[in-house]
Design a protein that fits this description.
- By secondary structure, this protein is mainly beta.
- It has 4 helices and 33 strands.
- It has helices spanning 41-51, 173-178, 221-225, 496-500; strands spanning 22-26, 29-32, 68-79, 89-94, 103-106, 111-117, 126-128, 152-157, 163-168, 183-188, 197-206, 233-236, 244-246, 251-258, 265-269, 275-279, 282-288, 293-296, 301-307, 315-320, 328-335, 366-374, 402-404, 421-423, 428-435, 441-445, 450-455, 458-459, 465-466, 468-471, 476-482, 487-493, 504-509.
- Strands 22, 23, 25, 27, 28, 29 and 31 form a 7-stranded mixed beta sheet that branches. A 6-stranded mixed beta sheet has the order 12-11-14-19-16-17, with no helix packed on it. It has a 5-stranded mixed beta sheet with strand order 13-21-20-15-18, with no helix packed on it.
């Protein structure tokens, strides 16, 4: 268990599928897009030979059917989180793997995904970050009946935005996500940026006992009222990280996705300068980070482009140093000894094509405010719950530990949840989120992406749009979005313990 005192964050200013499609490196030479942890020596040689012809890698288009249909089965399984020789850990998995199969869809092309439930309890799938119709959002009771054991549900939607997204349950989500149910969803751009390789790191952490079994205690009162269930093992794409093999001179697009229950990460790439090109699937103005660290709260995705300018044969650490005194090496960028692919960074633009997001009309916006309250050391009273939240034991026995505007909504969602506010379709909503607690909260909005306007009164640069916004203690963040998607939508903290213990609300678009 990580003590609350050790969880003080360092201040920072700003905060399956279709298989691997091929890419053309040079005339007559094609290699696959690699979403695994490493590449072979042979692939290094092929890539080096190809780039000598000065042709930049781009995904190849595939013949699209009228509807891209997939099928995913949810069922118990086993995983080796500590390497091929490590012990097996019982998990719940999509198609038998942790993480689940990476789904690659095409922007603007319809998809049909049939989810079969092989668990002994109900489940759903939430397509996190996708601006889809309300009936496909995956919230039990609120948007769909839960998928009962032995039955299936058909999700159909057309992704309007290209980018990096993911999928996970929204039923008993603390346990189901915590036992392994998560997968990446990539929506391909029609015109991607020029890179040599396109990589995905889906980051998760696990609280394991000494025998590699899942540690008990999901939903403990301490986790519920404090930092959430932070694990003791961190994995990349389902395994404890091995070296990430790279070639000097290559340009990599690295898609980072945090699918942890509660762990916030701040990744520092020693000797390298990552350029952020997208946040939560939405392109932003390409920019380097002031302190060089890529901060990822649970549910967030950040795409970075890295020019590999290290020396052949050398090794460079990737450090997660978000929590004071608890820094660790996540993995290592291990350079091949081959000669550099190029002697200077690739001369190609980094800006991704913008997605078709409606621009908020701030002059005519309707203003709404949500206030986050409660938690251990919060010092605030939760209306309707009773008791002071100081050093009592909020969250005991599944009770409320948190509130939004004085009201606690616990669990995952259910029928008849009263909306906190209602917006007329087409209205611009100027939303202020105020964190009055002593803890960090990645606040996730369903069905929309928000233009992030300001943090604590200072404008947020780089034209960022996000569906998950991290609030530090006492932060106030202003956002805006156009309410163009009708239905009842969730807005909640994506620290799963916090959501289950009351940090959740609903708004309605009519």
């Amino acid at each position: 268990m990580i003590a609350a005192g050790a969880l003080r964050r360092r201040a920072h200013s700003n905060s399956t599928s279709r298989g691997s499609p091929s890419i053309e490196i040079a005339k007559g030479l094609r290699v696959s897009i690699d979403f695994n942890l490493s590449i072979s020596r042979r692939r290094f040689v092929l890539a080096a030979a190809g780039v000598a012809a000065a042709t930049v890698a781009r995904p190849a288009s595939s013949m699209a059917s009228a509807v891209d249909e997939r099928r995913i089965r949810v069922a118990p399984g086993q995983a080796r989180f500590t390497g091929s020789s490590g012990p097996l850990t019982p998990v719940w998995a999509y198609d038998g793997t942790v993480p689940g199969p990476m789904l690659r869809l095409r922007q603007g092309e319809p998809a049909r995904i049939i989810v079969e439930n092989g668990l002994d309890e109900e489940t759903t799938v939430h397509w996190h970050g996708i601006r889809l119709q309300n009936a496909m959002d995956g919230v039990p009771g609120l948007t769909q009946p839960p998928i009962k054991p032995g039955t299936s549900f058909v999700y159909e939607f057309t992704p309007p935005d290209a980018g990096t997204f993911w999928y996970h349950p929204h039923a008993n989500s603390l346990v189901q996500l915590g036992r392994g149910l998560a997968g990446a969803l990539i929506v391909e751009e029609a015109e991607p940026i020029a890179v040599d390789r396109d990589l995905l790191w889906l980051l998760q952490d696990w609280r394991l006992a000494a025998d590699a079994q899942m540690a008990p205690g999901f939903g403990s009162a301490m986790d519920a009222a404090m930092s959430g269930r932070i694990g003791n093992i961190v994995t990349i794409n389902g395994t404890v990280p091995i070296d990430q093999r790279v070639i000097a001179g290559e340009r990599i697009r690295l898609r980072l996705a945090n699918a942890s229950l509660a762990r916030i990460m701040a990744l520092r790439f020693e000797g390298h300068r990552p350029v952020v090109v997208a946040i939560d699937g939405q392109p932003c103005d390409p920019h380097e980070l002031e302190d060089g660290r890529v901060v990822l709260a649970p549910a967030m995705r950040i795409d970075v482009v890295i020019d590999m300018q290290g020396d052949p044969g050398k090794r460079y650490a990737v450090i997660d140093d978000y929590y004071d005194g608890l820094a660790y090496k996540l993995t290592t960028l291990a350079y091949d000894t081959a000669s550099p692919l190029r002697t200077r960074p690739l001369d190609a633009p980094l800006g991704l094509p913008r997605n078709p997001l409606p621009e908020p009309d701030l002059a005519e916006a309707e203003r709404q405010e949500i206030v986050l309250q409660g938690g251990m050391m919060g010092g605030g009273k939760l209306a309707g719950v009773g008791g002071m939240m100081g050093m009592a034991t909020p969250g005991m026995n599944g009770g409320a530990a948190w509130a939004i505007n004085g009201m606690s909504m616990t669990g995952d969602g259910h029928a008849g949840m009263a909306p906190r506010f209602t917006l007329k379709r087409g209205t611009t909503c100027h939303l202020t989120m105020r964190n009055e607690t002593a803890w960090w909260h990645p606040m996730h909005i369903h069905g929309f992406s928000m233009s992030v306007l300001s943090r604590n009164g200072s404008p947020v640069p780089n034209r960022t749009w996000q569906d998950t916004v991290l609030l530090a203690p006492k932060d106030t963040i202003e956002c805006a979005f156009v309410a163009d998607n009708p239905g009842d939508w969730m807005l909640h903290c994506h620290v799963a313990d916090h959501q289950m213990a009351g940090l959740m609300t609903v708004f309605r678009v009519t």
